[in-house]
Amino acid sequence: MTVKLLQTWKALVALLLLSILLASHAMANELTASVDRTKVSIDDRITLTLRLDGAHSGSTPDLNELRRDFDIISNQSQRRLTIINGRQEAWLEWTLRLVPRQTGTLTIPALEVEGVRSQPITIEVSETRARPGSRGQDIFVETEVNKDSVFVQEQLLFTVRLFSRVNLDGAEMQPLDLQDAVMKAVDENSYITEIDNRDHLVLETTFAVFPQRSGELVIPPLVYDVAPSRARQDPWSRVYGGRERQRLRTDEVRVPVQPTASDFTGDIWLPADDIRLSEHWSSDPDNLIQGEPVTRRITLTAQGLTAAQLPAIPVGEVAGVNLYPDQPQTDEQVTSEGVKSTVTQTLALVPNQTGRLTLPEVNLAWWDTQAGEMRNATLPARQVRVTPPAGLAPPPGSSPQAAQDPTPITTELPISPRAEPGFTTLHWWLIVSSALLLLLLLFLSASYFRLRQQLNSLVEGHTQNQRQDRTREKTAWANLKRQTRDGSLSQVRDALLNWARSHWPDEPIHSLTAIAQRSERPGLQQQLQALDRSLFSDRESPELGRETLLQEVDALRVRRRKQQRETGDLPPLYRHRAH
What we know:
four-stranded antiparallel sheet; alpha+beta; Immunoglobulin-like; five-stranded antiparallel sheet
């Protein structure tokens, strides 16, 4: 009996251990790999981090394949466990310091731990950059631009690096402001590189610069204020222990800026690395219902442009559909590759007729700065199918099958043999017809109230949008007055375009020429031409009068207010059609 009991306990323990082992392998469901940089020089150090989720038995990754292209100078691992709101999370993490063994395109291979593999990572390794100021100096700075020349408004990446082979208590870069360019800090990084067989700490800052006029972009010297460490463990403390903070200055950088490309024929100049258009529908566009609103969201994504450079997405009128555009929403993200921006246009579409309707193509011309040619971002034209509301017959001529079958449908209604005297067939027909008519009236009343509720909702939304448009227009007008009196010419242009988009929210306004054509005022057109000439010259044109420009724009505002007092109704939900 005791032997059987012991065997039973052994079986239970073995089963428990097997369950724990299976659970351990089940939790180890992902191995992720990441690096601090993907573009380095042959002397730089790369930090590779491997993370294996779940509880583990202590396995280590096989690094033999990694050693073909990289030297591993350090390898540290640590286990971590967190418990948040009763939820337990455990993982194992390895931190490896790598040095590339050759230049070119190298690959950190897919590494495997406990049957789980990571994704490979591509690393671009360049030759050692020449650093003439590094010899004999413990702390020095350098600058670099990613292009020898750019077009006006094209993104230029400007990188500043501070090198130090001594420990630092602090390092501060003085702010830089450019007159004729927009400048954004997009990336900050720190790493170790080897110079003259000695490790140096590198503090790297990258800016995205967008020149606003052709000619030559001049980036003046940047000043770094650094403090060498006074710590005892610093082997150079005997040299720097008594020194004050040091000021380091970069060299001046000059980059030629070309005007708008002569081969570009689009409406608005968009020099970018990549531009794409995409769309999303709130419901299936092949199953729309007449009179019921649907939301279409169109997104423009641009790599290498700021959100302020992105135009409104061109959306024209569509026959058979009422369009109610919302205010475009913009977003801007920064990475080591520069600025990535998006603008999203949300449209409420209300079909007012049934059948197949065609939405026109959405097309936007842009300049590919990498290929040096004009391209087009396009959403192809598409058809949508609109059906009548449930219970309502389609309009005349919309049902070919009914037109081909003219035979009327007859229904025989039996007369009860026990009917009261005087109730004839005609009486029963009247009763049934009245009941059917009452049901039809009830159904039509319900449909009417539902459509009226939807229309009231649309009117309320349109009224709210009008209030928001007026608020935005007033804000844009105040900014235009301020920039016209105190700002630069480029600031006046931007403020004028911003006001025009709020003044004509339903029309694409991308240039001063578009404002001139839309305004139909000769005086304003002359001022806009003078402003355009001034933007691409070294001085302000004498024909440009800033106060005159404001007066012409204010005249447009007065005319718009008069028109709004006279008309302000929404377009009809169902347009009248000739029969």
